[in-house]
Amino acid sequence: MHRDFETMKMLAFHRELVASRRLAHSQGLTLSIALEQILTATAGQSGLLNLLQERRQHFAKLAEIKLKKKRQAEDKYAIKLACNKIPDSVWCGWFDGSARPNPGSCSIGALLQSPDGQRWEISRSIGYGNSSYAEYHALIALLELALKQQLNSMIVFGDSRVVIDDLQSGSQKYAQGLSELRQQANELMSQIPDLQLKWIPRARNQHADRLALQATQQTVI
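Predicted structure:
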């Protein structure tokens, strides 16, 4: 009695399946017989039963590794979603600045949102400078707006690595030419007891970006 074809097919490697099809075609055999002959030849002295058992263990291990990687990916994605989720129980702010060209005409955009969903927007031109100058001014404008609301905690989001790294650099080297703006921003942030400054990719800062662009377009008009 020949081995179960579906079981052998499941445990065979691709090259063995190809070889069995060729053997079946050349010898006029059924695929089941041809595959059994190929696997028997592969098994050699250890025997077909031992080969099939080894293959079961091999594919079971691969499935376990695949499942582990899938779970790790799911956990990583869940953590990413949790990190990306904007909390609805705290004040949040977003800022963005642009210079067109760079350096050139600068505009800023900012959005402040309260826990109950109220929103305040900033969109204005600020003269000539580079992109970091504009980003800093956008953050400062947002902080000034936030302080008017007399809030005690806030999460601030921005897509400027230069500004956020500059403010979070501690004793490390600061960005050149931004010392006065950095000092002004630090003074404002110190007035909010619980403030978190977080970098986000530009794709997640679209509202502030649109507000800055809006100011640029109005200036051109």
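Summary: The radius of gyration is 32 Å.
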